[in-house]
Specification:
The protein is α+β, with helices and mostly antiparallel strands and 208 residues long. The chain has five helices and six strands. Among the domains are: 2-71; 129-203, Alpha-Beta Plaits. Mean pLDDT is 73; it is low at 54-75.
Length: 208
């Protein structure tokens, strides 16, 4: 009998402990299911939310066992494009209108008389024109004068020039704007003056 009583007490203690364990497990599972339901509900509601609540200053999102707080700030935006157009019209009305001037004006230039003379001389002077001439003699002054007189007698249709290139003098013929014209003249002059050659020089403007 004693053994049976001891066994019964032992079994009853085990049964009570098992019941306590089961009740604790049930409580824990119920809490976990409640937490998981809350997290799932907030997650799905955030995905399928169609309207943004900008009036709330703070939303709490539960993920797992931790709580994350997210702050949402309000941004003032125009409700319609008409507000932007109205503001632009107001800005244009504030700006002053530019005055349109018509007619002919006058300009007065105050300048020294010496500068006026120099400016007039610069406008009156003709810029030099560079080209080619055929040089037929290069030597002393007396010989150069004799060659120039002889050349003028022979080539009366072409201009002949006596130029000073210190310490000697040069006798040149023609005013040729390009090398091709000078080569054609050289072919004719070299028969009379074997030492003739083409030299670049400042030439006179051709007569129109």
């Amino acid at each position: 009998m004693k053994k049976n009583n001891i066994c019964f007490k032992f079994l009853s203690k085990k049964g009570i402990l098992r019941v306590l364990y089961l009740s604790i497990l049930l409580c824990l599972t119920a809490d976990l299911s409640r937490v998981s339901a809350q997290t799932e509900g907030s997650w799905w509601s955030n995905i399928f939310r169609t309207e943004c609540d900008t009036t709330r200053s703070e939303n709490e999102l539960i993920s797992g066992d931790s709580i994350i707080s997210v702050r949402v700030f309000e941004i003032d935006t125009p409700d319609d494009k008409n507000d932007i157009e109205i503001n632009s019209i107001k800005a244009d009305s504030i700006r002053p209108a530019l005055m349109r001037r018509t007619g002919v004006g006058s300009v007065e230039i105050h300048m020294d008389s010496a500068l006026m003379v120099l400016s007039a001389d610069a406008l009156a002077s003709v810029p030099p024109l560079y080209g080619y001439r055929v040089q037929i003699h290069f030597g002393d002054l007396e010989t150069a004068r004799a060659v120039r007189a002889n050349c003028r007698h022979r080539l009366y249709t072409r201009p002949v020039y006596l130029e000073s290139i210190a310490p000697n003098y040069s006798v040149a013929v023609g005013n040729y704007r390009d090398r091709w014209e000078a080569e054609l003249a050289l072919d004719k002059l070299i028969r009379l003056y074997p030492n003739a050659l083409i030299v670049p020089s400042e030439i006179a403007l051709p007569k129109l």
